[in-house]
Amino acid sequence: MKVEFYKHNISQQDIDNVVGVLNSLFLTTGEVVSEFEGRFSRYLGCGYTVGVTSCTAALHLSLLACGIGAGDEVITTPMTFIASANSVLFTGARPVFIEVEPETGNINADLIEDAITSRTKAILPVHLYGQMCDMRKIREIADKHHLAVIEDAAHAIEAVRDGIRPGQLGDAASFSFYATKNITSGEGGAISTNSEEIAERLKKLRLHGMSKGAADRYSRRYEHWDMEMLGWKYNMSNIQAALLLNQLENIEKRWQRREQICRMYEEAFKKDSGITCLKVLPNSKSARHLFTILVPPKRRDSIMGQLQERGIGVAVNFRAIHLLTFYRQTFGYKRGSFPIAEKIGDSTITLPLYPKLSNEEVQYVIKVVKEVTTN
Ligand SMILES: Cc1ncc(COP(=O)(O)O)c(C=O)c1O
């Protein structure tokens, strides 16, 4: 049997929505983007959403909109995709890593205050795999020290913790619509915020700092525009937004299937001494973006190889980023700097997880994982 690592769920309705845009006058940022932004804000219970081209762009712009720049420090986690820390570097600031929780892989909020210096300007928590970080605690620390909170919610659209959703306590939350995400436009991203001021700045920053977007310039009589600040070219197009509209409508239904699959995996592996699953904490709804298991680090790569030989698509999310060559060479990090993150990074394997996965395929993955981990 062949079980792909990921299969998207693009429906005929999604395709029809894109065709509708292709048959219209306006392909770039316009009414369809505004429609998506409005619906996304309503879904999250946030004031404003700004559509961009990726979560990397969303993080970069969120940091800029919160005034982060050269010489500043941003506290974040080494257990994430490089985009989280790279976006800090794009602004000229420095990412300062701290250790993670063993049970979730999320940033350990109890260690944040020790890492704060006179240069610290923001905290960048990453809601890993879909389990939210402790946003109440993080907000409290940020308020005490006058720091911004920029959430990396690439994995966490559907997530809730202690009644809080991404973007509700952070100054801004960044989302990804990359090809394998819970809803996707191939590439794409968004920022949600409750601050009108940040939203206005983000709208300019996503398009060269221009005072008017294409829709303002061309839909009515031509209007002159000004460049009010230095911005980037990160604006979401109507084509991307059209792909997302209907996926967002169905997001909870799709999430339920993800939850079902994760529970099948968790039930099957709970008695296996060689396999550990990371935790969904009480009072939380995980967005269930990635299902990862931890296996003995010395055997991880060989187990992955065997899974692939038996037709199962796998990935590693993630090797701890402070150990990647650039971060070692630039900041002098070394093995031992963050042992918990390193242990997760050396042990983790991500299994297939998407609504189209059949029960038969899930059972096959479980059977093969059990066989290759006990051999
Ligand atoms: C935790 C995390 N943050 C940010 C990103 C970047 O997302 P994008 O590819 O949309 O830039 C990813 C991508 O997978 C991610 O996993």
Label the overall shape. Answer: globular
Mean pLDDT: 97
Number of DSSP strands? 12
User: Helices and strands, in N-to-C order?
Assistant: HHEHEHEHEHEEEEHHHHEEEHHHEH
**Distance from first to last alpha carbon:** 20 Å
Rg from alpha-carbon coordinates: 21 Å
Strand order of the largest sheet: 1-8-7-5-4-2-3
| Ligand set | pyridoxal-5'-phosphate
Q: Number of helix segments?
A: 14
**What helical percentage do the residues reach?**
25-40%
User: What class do helices, strands and sheet pairing give?
Assistant: alpha/beta
Indicate the low-confidence ranges by residue numbers.
none
Q: Main β-sheet, in a few words?
A: 7 strands, mixed
What percent of residues are in strands?
5-15%
Descriptive notes:
By secondary structure, the chain is α/β, with parallel strands linked by helices. It is 39% helix and 13% strand. The strands form three sheets. The chain has a seven-stranded mixed sheet with strand order 1-8-7-5-4-2-3, with helices on both faces. Helix 4 (82-90) links the parallel strand 2 (73-76) and strand 3 (94-97). Helix 2 (31-44) packs parallel to helix 9 (238-249), helix 3 (55-65) crosses helix 4 and helix 10 packs parallel to helix 14. It is globular. It starts with 11 loop residues before the first helix and ends with a helix. The mean pLDDT is 97. Pyridoxal-5'-phosphate binds next to helix 3 and helix 4. Pyridoxal-5'-phosphate binds at residues 54-56, 80-81, 83-84, 126, 152, 154-155, 176, 178, 189.
